Give the backbone structure.
Amino acid sequence: MSHMGFFASVNGVVTDAAEARVSVLDNGFTFGDAVYETLRTYGRRPFHLDRHLARLRRSAGRLRIAVPVPDDEMGRRLDALLERSQHAESYIRIIVTRGVGDISYNFDRVQGPTVVMVTKPFQPFPEAYYRDGIAVILSSVQRNHPRALDPGIKSCNLLNSVLAVQEAQDKGALEPIMLNADGDVAEGASSNVFLVKSGTLLTPTLDAGILPGVTRELLLERARALGVPVRETTVRVPELLEADEAFITSSLKELAPIRTIDGRPVGDGRPGPLTLRLLADFREYAPRHST
Ligand code: PDD
């Protein structure tokens, strides 16, 4: 696989990604002791970097990873990286690890943090997915319990999602929808879940044990601004299966309509009118809020 057009910034030093190096003693590698953000550009500018950095700091804080690099310096490092990459649009990943340790739980010996940014050309979801919708499954892999590893922490421990995505791919689906310990709808492996019932937009509350998605938050704001009735609530599986419309959201996917769940069509099996209206609105909004 070629990584042409992939660039990295490691503690502020920009290189081709192929040349970028992090120590094998880095806690991110030895313990998965790291947090991350994924975002994209619109018009070559990062979309809501402020909200992503705020969430990155909240995630790091929960793990007691100190991030002494201020937001404006983060912004300058990202600008330098984007300047080098020159993609039409970029996928951006920011990773902060606790730093280089001695493969032990002696956190006081760790020299850090390690602040990595990677860019690659942004590959949009195929337009057919937006036109026809996507296939999802209800995963047999339960979402991590908040008292085990809180999904609200965007950590680099992604094995819970890896297991669920493998199951989805085995079944020819694009995204697994994961349930919490109560059996209620939590979130996708890398997305949040919404449904429409009788004109009301519904999504699980944060205490379902999910990541507070930036796209989720923006979508709730946009829907309220448009006068769409919105409810954050417990979403039970039958409600999702019997929804008029359903979609997932993420920084990379925007809003992707769900066509089928475990092979059964949602609504009439085509992206619904409210989903398409919110998608069009989001696509109009996003380029105007990328700085
Ligand atoms: N994933 N839930 C989970 C578990 C996620 O990993 C993500 C994002 C979301 C959606 O959040 P946002 O709208 O802030 O992107 C919800 C990113 C895209 C990733 O893992 O690369």
About this structure: The first strand starts at residue 7 and ends at 10. Residues 38, 187, 190-192, 211, 213-216, 249-252 surround N-(5'-phosphopyridoxyl)-D-alanine (CB under 6 Å). The chain has a mean pLDDT of 97. Residues 39 and 92 are 5 Å apart (CA to CA).
